[in-house]
Amino acid sequence: MKIKIYCTSVIYRKLLDKLPKNIIPLGVGKGAFPGHWLSENRGANISHLNQYYGEHSGVYWVWKNCMSDYSDNDWIGFCHYRKFWLNDIFETKQKHSTDNLYSNLIKDNNSLLKTNNVILIQPIIYKNKNLFQDFFDVHKTNILEYSLNFLNKNLRTEFSNHLKSNILYPLNMFIVRKKYFIEYCENVFPWLEQCLSFSQRNNLLTGYNMRLPSFLSERFMSFWFSRLKDRKCLSYARLGNFFLSDFTNIFMNPLKLPLSFRMYPTIHNY
Questions:
Q1: Which pairing describes strands 174-177 and 75-80: parallel, antiparallel, or unpaired?
Q2: What is the biggest distance separating any 2 CA atoms in the chain, rounded to whole angstroms?
Q3: Where are the domains of the chain?
Q4: pLDDT tens-digit series, residues 109-152
Q5: Burial classification of residue 252, based on how many CB atoms lie within 10 Å of its CB (0-12 exposed, 13-18 middle, 19 or more buried)
Q6: Contacts of 242 (CB under 8 A, 6+ apart)
Q7: Using one digit for the tens of pLDDT, what is the confidence trace for 177-215?
Q8: SS in 3 state form for the chain?
Q9: Would you put residue 207 in left (φ > 0), alpha (ψ -120 to 50) or beta?
């Protein structure tokens, strides 16, 4: 059993060269990336859709180009250039920790990987609204409701029920066994294609909503993997400018500085 977590980024960042070996930089979009990085511009890809799909253009690339590298029980995961998996679940920030952040990133021997089928980010639990309402509050469009029509009847009902709940597994971050990853991709990308087409026909892809399909996929991902049994959660860290600075990373690996775990993990309270 092996685990690889693909870390998507639209630009080259020195920090990503300093991550543990199980976290692999994947350049997405139309940018230029160094030869030692993976890039979705090589091989079967939908890089031209990255401006709409966000990290899911990278998910597509892994699906179409890397499956022969894995057995059914191997793990495939995703994170982002400033959002990283931690090795445990936390309910509060570690205000007094002396640890460094690097030592708290997810490890290959995490016990959850031995007994589960999917790992998700600890959920956002909304106190006064459901997922339909939250999506409309942020994006001012009912496309999430229309998107149900692009699914078969059974999935439509299940997805709708999920969206009527108040629990969201966010950020399009997941770690899942290969066979379940393939099932997800076979379902999410035909659906996203129809969501994109609908968005284009109705002139919805403007401003912040340019990545509307990506925001929709976050809800679908939350729904799809919450259906799996043997599911657990881990926390994550959202990095600030100090960690991401290419200048800082010329001289040091800020992830390894003492006390750098003090204010993590990132906790959502709604």
A1: antiparallel
A2: 56
A3: 82-256
A4: 999 999 999 999 999 999 999 999 999 999 999 999 999 999 99
A5: exposed
A6: 248, 254
A7: 999 999 999 999 999 999 999 999 999 999 999 999 999
A8: CCEEEEEEECCCCHHHHHCCCCEEEEECCCCCCCCCCEECCCCCCCHHHHHHHCCHHHHHHHHHHCHHHCCCCCEEEEEECCEEEECCCCCCCCCCCCCCCHHHECCCCCCHHHHCCEEEECCEECCCCCHHHHHHHHHCCCHHHHHHHHCCHHHHHHHHHHHCCCEECCCCCEEEEHHHHHHHHHHHHHHHHHHHHHHHHCCCCCHHHHHHHHHHHHHHHHHHHHCCCCEEEECEEECCHHHHCCCHHHHCCHHHCCCCCCCCCCCCCC
A9: left
Looking at residue 204, its amino acid is L
